[in-house]
Amino acid sequence: MIQRPLLPVPRRRLLKTAGGLAGILAMRQAPAFAQAQPKKLVLPSITPPPEASGVMLKWMADEITARSQGALQVEFFGGTLMTKEIDVMNAVKGGNAAIGTPSGAASTIFPEMGVFLVPYLIQNYPHAYKILNGAAGDKLDAIFQQKYGVKVLFFFDLGFRHFWNSKRPIVEPRDLRGMKLRTQPSKVFTDTVNGLGAVAVPLGWAEVITAAQQGVIDGADLPVVNMVPLKAYEVSKYYSLTAHNYGSTVTVMNLATWNGLTPAQQKLVLDVARETQGRSREAMESVDSEVSAKAALEPVGMAVNAPNREPFRKLAMEKIWPAYQKQYPELWDQIVSVTA
Predict the structure, then answer these.
(1) Which pTM value belongs to this model?
(2) What is the CA radius of gyration of the chain?
(3) Helix H or strand E segment including 190
(4) Tens digits of per-residue pLDDT, 210-240?
(5) Where are the beta strands (DSSP E) in the chain?
(6) How would DSSP label each residue in 233-252?
(7) Within 13 Å and on the Cβ side, how many CA atoms surround 286?
(8) Cβ 165 vs Cβ 232: under 8 Å
(9) Domains plus CATH for the chain?
């Protein structure tokens, strides 16, 4: 038998606000943030599962919905609602979507994040995690809220980028001389390739495979996790684990939407976001190794090598770092103050 409320409430009001008997039970059992009208939050992504970021974001959407007992209904759309990073982020900034990520275009959409792409500034994964979960990450969150109207939920990465090509293994910087390598159409990527001694050829990804087949480029760079899905092995022979650029990106929420959440809802979203970050980092780091690269690429005909990175880093420090240190003085100091 169901107990009556301690205070008399008109039956019509109960039926309207709580959905009758089921609503009354939900109100008694659910936490405070689950008692309000459900809030729908759209989360578009350019990539669906089983691509790594699609899997990650869908898990986050499902967890927030489940843990809030439906008070926050996060609707994930992977590769269907929007297909361009800029469209996703414009939707989030404008409030037409609640949550999103710029994926690999983070430094184009949020230029402040270009500092993390400076070659060899980020030394390894633990170094990146200390920086992004520390003062530099907090600084970026404050900048993004003020400048772009979005709240940082968590930083994640697409792995370190490594060179692949059809000519030769890259063992030392001189192996890059004269090699034509595709880069994303972004200054920091072209500066990286040119500064390390190769010739940068900026291209959108849609043109890369054809350009490699026609000899317009000799290769490009990708994280380990993307080599097989993007079929780069079909137009290349060598994969060298140079780890020259760290692929940091971010997941953000529309700031007005964030401010419209209750404190309990904000805590829930951040808790799930931090767990999503951990899952993403574990998955990405687990495949970014010589052993994993060989396991994935040798069966499809590629040769994998792991060069000594210190000569590449010294060259980057000399040729590339000074300009970016001037461009990002405050963030630069925060980054270099963190030990790997």
Answers:
(1) 0.81
(2) 23
(3) helix 187-195
(4) 999 999 999 999 999 889 988 999 999 999 9
(5) 39-45, 72-78, 99-100, 150-165, 180-183, 199-202, 219-222, 238-254, 303-305
(6) GGG-SEEEEEEEEEEEEEEE
(7) 7
(8) no
(9) 32-336 (3.40.190.170)
